[in-house]
Amino acid sequence: MFNRTLAPESKHIDEIHFIEPLKQQLDNGISVFTVNAGKQELVRIEFIFENVNWNPSKPLEAISVSHLISNGTPELSAREIADQVDYYGAFLQTEYGADQSTVKLYTLNKHLVSVLPILRSILNDSIFPEQELAIFVQNQKQSLQVSLQKNDYLARKTFANALFGDTTYGSNIDAADYDAIKREDLLAYFKSAYKPENCTIFVAGKFEEAEFNILNSVIGGKWSNHGQSTVNQFSFTETRGAELLIEKPEALQSAIRMGTLGITRKNVDFAGFQVLNCLLGGYFGSRLMANIREDKGYTYGIGSAVTSLKDAGYFFIATEVGADVCASALTEIEKEIDLLKTVLVPEAELDLVRNYMLGSMLGSLENAFSHADKFKNVYFSGLDYGYYENYIQTVKHITPAELQQLAIRYLNTENFVKVVVGKK
Amino acid sequence: MLTEFYLSLAHYFQFMVDFNRFTLTNGLRVLVHEDDTTPMAVLNILYDVGARDEEGDKTGFAHLFEHLMFGGSINIPSYDEPLQRVGGENNAFTSNDITNYYITLPAVNLETAFWLESDRMLSLAFSEKSLETQRNVVCEEFKQRYLNQPYGDVWLKLRPLAYKNHPYQWATIGQDLKQIEDARMEDVKAFFKKHYNPQNAIMVVGGNVKTEAVKALAEKWFEPIPAGDKYLRNLPQEAIQTEARKETVKADVPLNAIYMAFKMPERRDPEYQCYDLMSDVLSQGHSSRLYNSLLKEQQLFSDIHAYITSSIDQGLFVIEGKLVEGVSVEKAEAAIWVELNKIRVEEVTAEEITKVKNKSESIMVFAEMSLLDKAMNLAYYELLGDAAGLNTEIDKYLAVTPSRILQAAKSTFVKEQCSTLYYLTAQDV
């Protein structure tokens, strides 16, 4: 009989293989990056547009255009667009992000030729009918009312606004902003943002020359829109410490969100900071989880994250804890951050985190979609695959002393914005 | 255009998630799916136990137990740590029917997954500290997901309204916090003995693995585990509902909402796929009936959905929506009934049925892109009777006809068999 108390032999992960996309261009100049991989006869095509012309008095322009873009053209009603896309078993999704807006198509290859013309029509000729806008405004306001009753939503919104003010990253949207949306503004935004000069296409799946030619013939011609645009650019001053409490006397749990402006992917410390974040709150075995969930049972989950946007990076910790133990949870969080600054991370723990992060990177490259996503991350940060090479080397070799220095440099809790929604 | 489509359906893709299958001497069923396009491996274990197997005074136990499975086993004090150390991740979920555990890790370290999973099937450590902590964690989960959210407790109300005998009347989280707080170690041990043994489990290993190697590992790590007793399920069945049930809840929520639940056939029933497609006709995407009629045209709802619970025993066909401010709940309910009556008397159109079939086909092809999804699906179809069913499921969808959907609608959308929950804002009191 063998000994069940002993772990089987294991291996370190040496190689992680990235599939770099092929770069091509449509006749109208749009760059197309293609990860042609996978066995399935399907494809995902993303049209990504930079957000432009930010106007703080009309914070919902870009997001409303993104939501309503498939709601009517001169030839097709919203219903007809939906009918046709669904008929071919395709999925047409729009996604609004703080820096970019995406129109995304998932389709089986055999239907590509049928669905692309619908997309072309949407990207060129959307008319944003008043009726559709009115329904959108009414329903978004209702859904906002529901969100505002969720403590974690309120915490997220309050935190973002404290860090980023009136920018796309932090805008404090309320119902009145929805009422102020005008159809002319949406049309103007559409004409400025949805044009070839402002578009990049990312393709993932089975996509050979024949498919590219279909794409080029349908999308690669002249587009209708050519309004003036300036890509959004923001700058932020360092976060000043603040404690913000939104009291909810009836709360069973309090939502906590705290953190600070930080570094972006471009910073040399970014990879190291990700290792530090992982140790603190980036995985199931992290120190925050081990202490606040697994030892104390204060919460169902707690985590931390580093986020890199185009013009800012930030770090935050988020959780929902029993209202009666909120104060203790806050103390424990501070304690864990303090430990990172004062005591060197033990080698055994660091070794585990190294392996976990490499395994997780390997596992995140599951299919053509994920390879394309990895590329988009570096592309929009103005970086190349050297970023991942450096990331892997840093994860493998960063020392406890370096991590301590990073904690001292970037986890200054006096400068944290600390939001609690519920009871403290 | 239509003919063209019926033709294209005739040579749809061959869905193929290949697998090999063997059974260990202790009754553990093992399936292997080889996929060398990934450097990763998945080990998925499905235990044939869910919230439906709980006692009425100990609800929430299957789920609490799932948490305890991470509290250390007989020979290994920590489950997560050694796995993370070899680059792996894991998680689990509990439903009313099953409890499913999964690991993903670099395929070169597959044996670590066998070591960890076999030890906790052999025996848990049954630590008091773990029980105490996980009771708290689950209570916080209860609060976070069900009590401290607007509309969070809907299913705690809707289940007991729709089910009077069957244990589907409680949610996996349990009926209340008290039953979880009261869980004792002897209950934990009894539950383990009853449900967690090789005969009640299905293991799927997938990814960059070879069947022979998996077989050797399975024999080494799992075969020595005693077979245990086979759990024979004998659940109280639901009588046919003969009168409409209605309940009104008032809560601190901003919008009035309505939930309607109808009984529908169990997962293995040959008509199951008709119901799934019928819910798609009503509610999938922006071309669907309820979205266009109730949200866009009549503007009675700000969101509206129809879906099925897909449970192994008799399930529910649910329609739920949030009302536009100022619309009366009676008017909104009547409008839903108009749509349901329509689908009860008129066959769905050729376009509609082609559309939802095409959509189902797409969803199935896209699901093949995820190794974990494939492994979980194989385990689930094996539980339903045969993992090969995963590869023929699409045929059942393509065989559905408008007249079968009509029959399904006729037998389902009957007022006397409806359980309706009004979930109203407290301001309207």
Q: Short description, anyone?
A:
The complex is a heterodimer of chains A (about 425) and B (about 425). Chain A is built from 15 helices and eleven strands. Chain A is an alpha+beta fold.
How is this structure best described in words?
The complex is a heterodimer of chains A (424) and B (429). By secondary structure, chain A is of the alpha+beta class. Chain A has two domains: 22-219, Metalloenzyme, LuxS/M16 peptidase-like (Cytochrome Bc1 Complex, Chain A, domain 1, 2-Layer Sandwich); 243-422, Metalloenzyme, LuxS/M16 peptidase-like (Cytochrome Bc1 Complex, Chain A, domain 1). Helices cover 43% and strands 20% of the residues of chain A. Chain A has 15 helices and eleven strands. In chain A, strands 1-2-6-3-5-4 form a six-stranded mixed sheet, with helices on both faces. In chain A, strand 1 and strand 2 (31-36) form a beta hairpin. With 429 residues, chain B is an alpha+beta fold. Chain B contains 16 helices and eleven strands. In chain B, helix 1 packs parallel to helix 13 and helix 12 (329-345) packs across helix 16. Chain B is globular, with a radius of gyration of 23 Å. The N and C termini of chain B lie far apart (54 Å). Mean pLDDT of chain B is 94; it is low at 1-14. Classes of the chains: A alpha+beta (424), B alpha+beta (429). Chain A: InterPro entries: Metalloenz_LuxS/M16, MPP/UQCRC_Complex, Peptidase_M16_C. Chain A: One of its GO terms (molecular function) is metal ion binding. Chain A: Residues 181-355 form the Peptidase M16 C-terminal domain.
